[in-house]
User: Fold these one by one.
Assistant:
Number 1:
Amino acid sequence: KNQVEQSPQSLIILEGKNCTLQCNYTVSPFSNLRWYKQDTGRGPVSLTIMTFSENTKSNGRYTATLDADTKQSSLHITASQLSDSASYICVVSLSGSARQLTFGSGTQLTVLP
Amino acid sequence: DAMVIQNPRYQVTQFGKPVTLSCSQTLNHNVMYWYQQKSSQAPKLLFHYYDKDFNNEADTPDNFQSRRPNTSFCFLDIRSPGLGDAAMYLCATSRDTAPGTETQYFGPGTRLLVL
């Protein structure tokens, strides 16, 4: 069964600190992996997308890594800001099919002043 | 610039009273999706349209229907809402479904409350 597991389920950090969110998946055949940020009461917004051959991708203070051999991804947030408080969702796509997205249940990040 | 627009942002309906949620897009994408997301859970795909072709997920209840009258608009109809249908409903679009074109862009969602 295709699954995406995220850890931790929730995380609280102080403003200015760094943090790393984890995503493990069993989806096969793998096409790509995305990290989305979902603010409370809002739709998800794409942060990064990585295909099988990509190991790392950055978007400002967000850096995602992918190890396709171990089927693990991480999202590193540098110098956190209060506006980073949100749910971060890892989404893995089956090869060649947009509808076959497997969502993780997200990591709820809270950044405190 | 708004790309995927959902109206209303909040919808309150009564148990059993039909309700329609609206989604429009300015991206001219071929594919439009409807997801249901309950609190602290991942979004769950209900169905999607590829152009005019409707694709229902096997476990989507019959209570949920959809219409896509043109490229820009897609509607979610809930024929007889139950208390368990209270959720955030997310609309998304993608240019196509082939690799490299399948990134989904989400709207802000409509939060449905059933009284």
Note: The first strand of chain B starts at residue 4 and ends at 7.
Number 2:
Amino acid sequence: GNSVTQMEGPVTLSEEAFLTINCTYTATGYPSLFWYVQYPGEGLQLLLKATKADDKGSNKGFEATYRKETTSFHLEKGSVQVSDSAVYFCALFSGTYKYIFGTGTRLKVLA
Amino acid sequence: DTGVSQDPRHKITKRGQNVTFRCDPISEHNRLYWYRQTLGQGPEFLTYFQNEAQLEKSRLLSDRFSAERPKGSFSTLEIQRTEQGDSAMYLCASSLGEATNEKLFFGSGTQLSVL
């Protein structure tokens, strides 16, 4: 069946460091891919998405490229801030109105 | 637009009791989803409504779980004869229904603790 695998956290970085959070997926067909973020005390919210191969989603300095050949959708940011501390979830839409989420990766950014 | 609201935020109950949660989606949203999230895990799909019709249910949803969305507005999720394994965060999300892969708007969830 369809699934999403994320790198385990927590990830701890200093401010202005480069961030990569790995995400790979297994799916039949051509899913859409998403990154959702959950800040402390808040609900999940969409960070970015990509709907087809080679698309790049971007928002708030974060980027992720849909790589069909490696079935990956890694999240990157060139310079993280303390305010980026949150839990990040990779997700795919399987085409049956059912989003499948990864286990989440907690990011902690130190000043 | 006040976002997706869920009530209550926290629920503590004894094993064997029934509980009901409510979700109010964003008013113009046609689609409504229920997810369950346990510590260290991502949200797991439970069920999905398009307007008032419940179109899909996960195999995770045993016969002790029932969800409704009368009139296609708010939704309720009821758990009968609760078990300790039901302890989790129950998340509601809604979306416009204009596309098959559009973004979900999540509520803050209801944290259930079964003692």
Note: The two ends of chain B are 36 Å apart (CA to CA).
